[in-house]
């Protein structure tokens, strides 16, 4: 029971935190619940399909299917998160102003919402498929089915609760600073996912490791701990990062920030000198 609870908690926590960030980042956008809810349903359906054909995927890619699949999912999420931040760097100030004036949800186009749906779907797809595979492995190993179900329910409740608490915390941020704060969160979330994708591609033999371990901070903060796991999800923290992972992390941050600055500069009044992330507030 404990094993299934920990597995489900870890996987649900990662998906729940990403969903919470997506809900927070789309604050004030009408219809966001339908889009993100649709992303959750789509991701769950996809997770079941992936889990059902896991052996076929692995065989088709010469035993590297799991790593390559995870890398593709993560890189797709990085692209959508980056696109969301670039879009918000142009429209975030307008949204914040509308929220102040109207005091209610604003109505905007579906561009940022489509990104929310894709990112949510990919997060649930990846974590859901891994959860199903892990639980299947425990069941095949002789674990009690009732204990698996009970532990899975506890893990699901715990991960969902922490995601909800993060979302409630984001809503407490004043509107004037909200889009700036969530912009930074999404930026580092994307960078962390890019670093994880690089590690998967390195494990699959498609990228060089560069350095197997750049530093080791596990004695200060173990990545496997609750705090370490949350920081890994939110900002890409790794206690033993690889060289290729750090390269992807830094390049992702620089690329998104440069694009945001370029878009914000092209849409800002000539007198504006605020940095792009702050302009989105």
Q: Would you write up a description of this structure?
A:
The chain is mainly α. It has helices spanning 2-25, 32-52, 54-60, 65-102, 111-140, 145-171, 175-203, 226-235, 243-267, 276-279. Helix 7 (175-203) runs antiparallel to helix 9. The longest helix is centred in the first third of the chain and has 38 residues, at 65-102. Residues 98-111 and 271-276 have low confidence and may be disordered.
Give a concise summary.
The protein is mainly alpha-helical.
For the record, what CATH class applies? Mainly Alpha
CATH architecture: Up-down Bundle
The chain-level mean pLDDT equals: 77
Total of domains = 1
* Share in helix: over 70%
**Might you state the CATH topology name?**
Growth Hormone, Chain: A
**How widely separated are the two ends?**
45 Å
| Global morphology | globular
Radius of gyration, rounded?
19 Å
Largest sheet: none
Q: What's the β-strand tally?
A: 0
State the low-pLDDT regions, or none. Answer: 98-111, 271-276
Please report the number of helical segments. 10
Look at the helices and sheets and give the structural class. mainly alpha
Strand share of the residues? under 5%
- Spell out the helices and strands N to C: HHHHHHHHHH
Walk me through the topology.
Layout: H1 2-25, H2 32-52, H3 54-60, H4 65-102, H5 111-140, H6 145-171, H7 175-203, H8 226-235, H9 243-267, H10 276-279
